[in-house]
Amino acid sequence: MLGVGDFYYELGVQIIEVCLALKHRNGGLITLEELHQQVLKGRGKFAQDVSQDDLIRAIKKLKALGTGFGIIPVGGTYLIQSVPAELNMDHTVVLQLAEKNGYVTVSEIKTSLKWETERARQVLEHLLKEGLAWLDLQAPGEAHYWLPALFTDLYSQEITAEEAREALP
Amino acid sequence: MAMSFEWPWQYRFPPFFTLQPNVDTRQKQLAAWCSLVLSFCRLHKQSSMTVMEAQESPLFNNVKLQRKLPVESIQIVLEELRKKGNLEWLDKSKSSFLIMWRRPEEWGKLIYQWVSRSGQNNSVFTLYELTNGEDTEDEGIESILQDFQGHL
């Protein structure tokens, strides 16, 4: 299992800190890539190097401890869920769809997944409610639902002092 | 003292310009807008604005992103700032406003500290001296006091 001083234990603590600090922005959903960047930043140059595989292993251990962490495969990488939002298969599959452009629309869902409008709408409403998606009414055509977690502009943006404070117990 | 100003990540995030339906998300959004308005005005040493100016200003209108905050939402942001004590309407019809990126109490404290530092406690001096004296720090004291003067 895990012991204090264990590499994965310490990594797990770091992962939790990063997720807590960024939860305010992304609602508790973060790509493995961004998590990796932020963890490496926090480790400094003398720390042992950490790979994405290491992160996945650490997160699996966190999951096993019942911390509410989730790992969602999307487009060749993973979304890490750190807040126990209720996400079922429908939500997950829409997240996977959103990964391509960072946003998703009702039309896209209907076309790609062959769903009825109502089913698509319900999933998007849920994502809004969980704070995982933001609504954009000025997009061309129809409403776009953007996920801060997938907003690549956000990658390697410094964690602000405010956000760091949020991470403290 | 030069202020470095960087647009926050939200400014490049298209939904930032749509008032969010989810209450928690909206709270975060409004807090970010308030913060942005204050740092923008501070950078540009702008202490008053009309609502019309605001609508077309890069502050609320991100041309590159093709998104602008609609006027009803701008009003909501301004009302938040008013509630926090950072904004005062200059007319009844709410067409122009004073932005106090430092609230009056904060300015009072700053001025008091400056006066104490320059050893001028208990002396009377004019607004001209205050705003044009050699010791005046580049804190935008001049523009704020000028605006207050006009406001009186």
UniProtKB/TrEMBL annotation, chain A:
GO terms for biological process: protein transport to vacuole involved in ubiquitin-dependent protein catabolic process via the multivesicular body sorting pathway. Its main location: cytoplasm. Keywords: Coiled coil, Cytoplasm, Protein transport, Transport. The keyword Cytoplasm applies. One of its GO terms (cellular component) is ESCRT II complex. Pfam families: EAP30. It is found in: Cytoplasm. It comes from the Eukaryota. The keyword Repressor does not apply. Belongs to the SNF8 family. PANTHER family: EAP30 SUBUNIT OF ELL COMPLEX (PTHR12806), VACUOLAR-SORTING PROTEIN SNF8 (PTHR12806:SF0). This is Vacuolar-sorting protein SNF8. It comes from Carlito syrichta (Philippine tarsier). The lineage of its organism: Eukaryota, Metazoa, Chordata, Craniata, Vertebrata.
UniProtKB/TrEMBL annotation, chain B:
GO terms for molecular function: protein homodimerization activity; structural molecule activity. One of its GO terms (biological process) is protein transport to vacuole involved in ubiquitin-dependent protein catabolic process via the multivesicular body sorting pathway. Keywords: Protein transport, Transport. The keyword Acetylation does not apply. It holds the Pfam family ESCRT-II. GO terms for cellular component: ESCRT II complex. Coiled coil: none annotated. InterPro entries: ESCRT-II_cplx_Vps25-sub, ESCRT-II_cplx_Vps25-sub_N, WH-like_DNA-bd_sf, WH_DNA-bd_sf. The keyword Transport applies. PANTHER family: VACUOLAR PROTEIN SORTING-ASSOCIATED PROTEIN VPS25, VACUOLAR PROTEIN-SORTING-ASSOCIATED PROTEIN 25. Belongs to the VPS25 family. This is Vacuolar protein-sorting-associated protein 25. It comes from Carlito syrichta (Philippine tarsier). The lineage of its organism: Eukaryota, Metazoa, Chordata, Craniata, Vertebrata. The gene is VPS25.
